[in-house]
Write a structure and sequence with these properties.
Elements (H helix, E strand, L loop, with lengths): L1 E5 L20 H16 L5 E4 L11 H16 L4 E3 L20 E3 L4 E7 L2 E7 L6 H12 L8 E7 L1 E2 L3 E2 L4 E2 L6 E2 L10 E5 L5 E3 L7 E3 L16 E8 L2 E9 L5 E6 L6 H13 L6 E6 L3 E2 L8 H8 L3 E5 L1 H8 L10 E2 L7 H4 L16
Parallel strand pairs: 1-2, 2-3, 3-4, 6-7, 7-12, 8-11, 12-14, 17-18, 18-20
Antiparallel strand pairs: 1-15, 5-6, 9-10, 13-14, 15-16, 19-21
Helix pairs in contact: 1-2
Length: about 375
Amino acid sequence: MRLLFLSDTHLGIDMPARPRVARPRRGEDFFRCFAAALAPALAGEVDAVLHGGDLLYRSRVPAWLAEAALAPLRRVAEAGVPVLLLPGNHERGRLPFPLLALHPRLHLLDRPRTVLLEKGGLRVAFSGFPHAHGVRSRFGALLAEARRGEPDADVRVLCLHQCVEGATCGPGDHTFTNGDDVIRRADLPRDFALALSGHVHRHQRLEGPPGPPVVYAGSTERTSFAEAGERKGVVHLRLGPGGLLGLDFRPLPARPMLLRPLSLAGLDAESARRRIASLAAGTPPGALVGLRLAGPLPEALLPILSAASLRALGGGRELRVSGPALRALRDGAGRRAPPGRSIRPPDDGQLFAASGAADRLGRPAAPKGT
């Protein structure tokens, strides 16, 4: 069986129906990667599709967005390819407008259950449950419920949207070990050929005992600067009577995302504009560029860092500037500098905290719709 595995598409992020501010939006980036991910299924190149959760960017969405997200999956099902869809934490374990997902070949794992698919005489049982908080202590009971009355199968696949012990994410390579929301590798039953999980945005494969291999497809598009250096894509797997026969990660056309340091100390307005424009010109067209402000920021240069000014200087790229000195000026934190003086950064800070996109673990924060 040829299986296409994707997850964490986060459709709807930065895509308000009636935007109050005119600025570049990233919503289409996520739909573009989603369409590219499903193209092999529509072309008949796979036998089944598994979406590992977080189809949408939040649980409460308008009907038009739910329809836009589910329609491509229904088209895949209509083409004769079974689809399994598991609600993630951003859907709070429940898919909004579930009637839009009605199709005989679109299987919702919106409760603990097992779905049996057959191809070429190979019977594959997919067991799983939607994202669950406190899963460490609940995992055994949830899995037992999912496997209740499970049919005979040649291969068993565990479907999750959880953190599994040993998974890594973020710029500091945070590793999940303990915690109420982390599943122990030793708790994964060995009669599963593998576990396929969403939730962690970095593609990775956890091997070795205890437990079966764990594969994360990762998100299909970069949701924050914490993921700037990560490849984004989908996973194609081949399953046979012996279990996993092969695995192929296929990149998707995610928007380039880069981080660059920026120092404006001692510059006048025109020199500051030239420096920002030069940094932007050294990045790929259409890139999302995070400029990490280092050192003091003269208060007179603050207008140059406005959204409108950055759009003009970006040359078709989206520029985002961050740094503690900038936050101090914008938020009024700390003392205001005397005329002609600078606000100095109080600490090293984090670009990710001010990007408005995600936390350090790569989990996208819901945009404010502006």
